Amino acid sequence: MKYIAVIGAGTMGNGIAHVFAQKGFKINLIDTQPAALDKAISTIQKNLDRQIAKGVISPADKTNTLSNITTFESIENGVANADLVIEAATENSNIKKSIFSAMDQFAKPSCILASNTSSIPIAQLAAATKRPGKVIGMHFMNPVPIMKLVEIINGKDTTLEVTEAIVSLTRHIDKIPCVVKDFPGFIANRILMPMINEAIYALYEGVSDAVTIDQIMKLGMAHPMGPLQLADYIGLDVCKNILDIMHEGFGNEKYAPCPLLVQMVNEGKLGNKSGEGFYKTTAVR
Ligand SMILES: NC(=O)c1ccc[n+]([C@@H]2O[C@H](COP(=O)([O-])OP(=O)(O)OC[C@H]3O[C@@H](n4cnc5c(N)ncnc54)[C@H](O)[C@@H]3O)[C@@H](O)[C@H]2O)c1
After folding, report:
1. Do 17 and 27 meet the contact criterion of CB atoms below 8 Å apart?
2. Range of the structural domain that residue 58 is part of
3. pLDDT tens track for 94-151
4. Which residue, 43, 177, 220, 233, has fewest beta-carbon neighbours within 10 Å?
């Protein structure tokens, strides 16, 4: 694989583009919002500067990495030469299904179509294409340049050849693949999101304040970040969308998002990316 298209230039898309470009792949970064593309490039520049300051890469590596990324506003142009497309757009099944249908239409027949979805069944996305055997989940963790795990999700039709290609590519970019089956939320979010939702319920019911809830989980469970701080970091809209998908997918009330989370998302309090969530933050991507 040489050419990789990344669809969605938000929190995850810019990280995925960064990691592959740094490894020498040619990246087409696609977003319908020009402002998102500009922000993604400036975020990648800042993150590369941080790597230079830490002595992890040289200034020449930064130049090479940036020169490997080209931005596009249309899927049609952006996926044309791709060997692999990684979709990292908004966590909404209708949006993703229409993107998968467009990817299928405009990418080469040999191209593998991957999704960074946190929770949407791969089977649903595969059904929007005429190549279900070439559709797979490639779930990166945030922040992508730092986190080692990639949860790889086999759809019911994903071929062994495609799984092996994605496992080997994951190792090539120095990440660790963990292969799982296709259930809502897979493993990572099936376990993480109920914990975050429960922390929000504890706040909602006034059991304690956000700082204390997070402190208890950090000090008591050795978590590097408290669940509310982590929710701000992930994005409260993303957390709510994942819970909605598990709620609907399993038909189980235990996954229903806490009313406080729903209210905050409706008020535009999305966490770090909007500047306010459970904590007041500087808006960052
Ligand atoms: N935020 C996290 O911590 C995290 C972690 C792992 C996986 N994910 C998953 O990654 C995906 C992206 O999440 P994010 O947090 O980066 O979201 P985000 O809101 O930061 O970015 C999404 C981007 O997708 C773009 N987009 C929407 N529709 C599009 C279209 N039709 N074509 C092209 N671009 C389009 C938006 O303009 C936006 O820039 C989601 O599926 C999410 O569940 C998120």
Report:
1. yes
2. 3-180
3. 999 999 999 999 999 999 999 999 989 999 999 999 999 999 999 999 999 999 999 9
4. 220
Residue with tokens 């044309």: 80
Domain with residue 98: its CATH number is 3.40.50.720
Residue 90 Cα: closest atom of ligand 1: 22
Q: How many domains does the chain have?
A: 2
- Rounded Cα–Cα distance for residues 194 and 196 (Å): 6
**Same-domain check for residues 95 and 32:** yes
Record the pTM: 0.92
The maximal CA–CA distance of the chain, rounded, in angstroms, is: 55
Within a domain: 278: no
Q: Is 189 a catalytic residue?
A: yes
Q: Give, for ligand 1, the residue of 77, 86, 238 to mutate: max count of ligand atoms closer than 8 Å to Cβ.
A: 238
- 47 noted as active-site residue: no
Dist. CA 91 → ligand 1 center (Å): 6
Is residue 74 located within the same domain as residue 172?
yes
Q: Cβ of 243: how many Cβ atoms within 10 Å?
A: 25
